[in-house]
Design a protein that fits this description.
- With 458 residues, the protein is mostly helical.
- Helix content is 71%, strand content 0%.
- The protein is built from 23 helices and no strands.
- Helix 1 runs antiparallel to helix 16, helix 4 runs antiparallel to helix 5 and helix 5 packs antiparallel against helix 9.
- The longest helix has 26 residues.
- It is globular, with a radius of gyration of 22 Å.
- The two termini are 33 Å apart.
Amino acid sequence: MSLAMIIELLIVLAALYVGSRYGSLALGAISGIGLAILVFGFGLTPGTPPTDVIYIIIAAVTCAGTLQASGGMDWMIQLAEKMLRRHPDHITFLGPLVTFFLTVLVGTGHVVYTIMPIICDIALKKNIRPERPCGVASIASQVGITCSPIAAAVVAFVTISNANGFMVSIPQVLMVTIPACLCGLICAAAASYKRGKDLDKDPAFLARKADPDTYKYMYGHEATSLDKRISAEAKASVFIFLGALLVIVAFAFCQMIHVADGRALAEAIRLPKMNIIIQIVMLSAAACNIMFCKAEPKKAVGGAVWQSGMVAVVAIYGIAWLADTYFGNYMEQMKTMLADVVTNYPWSIAFVFFLVSVLINSQGAVVVAMLPLAYELGIAGPVLLGVLPSVYGYFFIPNYPSDIATVNFDRSGTTVIGKYLLNHSFMMPGLICVAVSTIAGYLIANVFFASYFSAFIK
């Protein structure tokens, strides 16, 4: 590794680190400074920004934003709350499953802001230490990203994999990631079931409870969405959204079905590529929500879902372009350096994915930035699919909005960011969930489905 490579790599890492300190749009914008230094200062050839993935994200978050603006997301939260309040004793398992499946449906983990106060309230009123369900539920809301048919990470994985000869479809990805991540979540919830002291034995909690003002703050009101009136238009927007997802999955299955001459059904009937189909369907669903479900465009773009999605677009745009520029110029050197490790231990790429995610706080950006490098190194598609859950590592440093929000939502004070930063409430469930999900995904993709997936490799 030459001195120039080391210096330029440090510039890339510095841009990612500084961007993560500022957060939000800064991740992508500050990556632009790193890109400028590499191109104008060191003379590297600029890489290619991931436009296909960006277009899909824009279409998906526009659709999800109109769902939120129409009130459809409120109805989904109400249905989830009714189920949770019906079974409060199992909140440590059911809470994370709710946040997981909400993310799977909507494609973003930021939906957790609506349901997390309800999970905290149910646990506290049932005298269950809120840290137990809350820590896992925050993790679950992010783990669900690699299991959503419209999430940037999944779409980017399929798009990049197809371009590199691994002809995998969205349903095939979900056949691996959903069961793998559910295994990880169940293990994390089981480990959290008796985590920490019970509330009646916790001196810190009892001291807070003894203070009249703090007691009123903790028990004086109920967090609920059940008092919201849900309109017929809001319910219709949910059915439109779910219908759009089913249409996308149906088109994806057309790619998996082969006709007599060996061609995919989608090719035989001249369907466009999946990235185009997703954009068309999502934009059409968004239009239906606006025209028929009273989703005001101004309200849609002002909502948390649309805004967080646009932040993801900027982050992926800058980070992926910066990474593609660096790795694209040094691909041969990378192959030489990593050849032995990749050949003998191809699964070790999971550690790279995880470490990069710790830095850049975006699973979609990790996939777009690192997956092309993994394919260039010769790692097989089924291996990369199996370790896809490892792209979630930004719980490690508790600076992600959903984790910080969860700490604030827990009125009992049991969900915390520790004195030493890394001893926080999300570390244990996060490590267990990602480790188990990655191992399970690897086994599913490479043991049970190895021969199945090999048929889709050109």
